[in-house]
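User: Could you walk me through two proteins back to back? I'd like the raw sequence and the structure tokens for each, with a short line separating them so I can tell where one ends and the next begins.

Assistant: Of course. Protein one, sequence then structure:
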Amino acid sequence: MKYGRSKRAKNKCYEMDKQNVNGEVPDAAFLIEHMADGFAYCKMQFENGRPCDFTYLMVNPAFEKITGLNGVVNKNVTEVIPGIKENNPELFEIYGRVALTGSPDSFESYVPELKIWFAVTAYSPEEGYFVATFEDITERKNTEKALQKSSLLLNATQHLSKVGGWEYDVVTEAATWTEELYKLHDLPVVSDIDLVAESLKCYRPEDRNIISNAFNNAIEKGEGYDLEFPITTLAGRAIWIRTTCQPIYENGKVVRLIGNLIDITERKLSEQITNRSEANLRAILDNSPFLTWMKDESGRYITVNKAFANYLQLKDVGEVVGKTDFEVHPKELAEKYRNDDAEVMASRQQKHMEEFGSDGNRVHWVETYKTPIIDAHGTILT
């Protein structure tokens, strides 16, 4: 249907600037009247060859419902919506180009005066005129903004916690990574590579079968996993990671896998330092010729050295860990040892004494030093 200056359809449900002439247009009129999208037929105005305004010639009921504007026919948009030319100059450029060239265009635009986002399609029925059909997409835009904000928060949180997320579609065999997961692999964000294969390159040869089997078992048997590996990123960084996987079922079949990959390098380094410290302490204890032990506040042994274990004729130092003096020594000696321990902890002072000791067979005179272990905050540890 062509709308010209001398030929306009008129219907009780939409406005026109001219009286209807003879012609069969009920089908088009009906469609315009009942369409869910807003409809506006306008004449473009130019000044010095530049679009400066446009006049509403016809609008449909959806136009009024969506915009909240009434009585706009034969009025200029700058009159109907003051400030629109300053805030939305792109509308005038687009509509002006469409009206002059006849080339249609589709775009999205926010009109702050109306507080509405519009998705617009514009075309020209004849030179100097244009038709704009539009829908309100404000809710969609607000949702997109919320999702973008949520995504930014997720990326920031994952970056701070060094956690990357991933998803694998079993049907399409397509993998999706979060931004942080790319960073953990030192891989640029690209869409045309096999992410699973790229990740597998980072594992040691002896670990690739382990993670591959775990991944395949998750797909075929629905078995999740939680594993830790040292890897070398694609940039050559050596890190430790913890990788987890959870199968997602639909109609009894695994359709997706979701998981996390966490940088646990700091934890592993801390564990290594702790292990070295414990190994050094163990070496010091076991190389001492003196019977040495540590107990907690309840009187249970935390650790003993080899000299202590040998004295009690134990096969391993771990045999006494977790036990009390009453489980290791004769009752009379155990009661004395326990009382001495309580005195040392109450006084927070070292105690030196000569007392009886028993190796399980014989009683000996022994020289004993007991001292409380106090941390930097003044709390007695043992």
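----
Protein two, same layout:
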Amino acid sequence: MGKKTISDEKKVVIKSLVDSGKSYREVQEIIPVSLGYIGKIIKEFEANKELINYYKTNKVDILLKTQMDNLALQGAIRASITKKDVKNWTPDQKARWYDATGRDFGIKFDKSRLEEGESTENVSVLYRHILDIQRRKIQEREQEQNDDVVEAEIVKENAENR
């Protein structure tokens, strides 16, 4: 029997997952290959400029495909869970499931938007922070002026009492 090989696209997905901070074990759960093979693929990227260029050129599409595959997998998992299963879960298990699926989707969506250069700046939050900073600076200046006035009055009183 010959050795099994995987496509360049899957190698790029593995590289992308490792680059996104996933451990080799987490990658192995997504793409069933040995930990050693994942390490070998990462080394191939370092040595293979062509594959690196493919990765750089197609990174957004690859991440999007990975996201879609992951969403399909999540959908299949959700479909396999019965109402009876959920009924037997503790409130904590339910909360963790909801939190994990929502966070996972949000992270992947944000990452794809960042990679596409379409990240939305939350201008209203930034604007509010800027106004708060300006307000605090004005209050600090007014307090300093009040402190100066009070200090001047104390000095004047002390001079008059001498």
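Residues 8-120 form one domain.

Let me know if you want the two compared in more detail.
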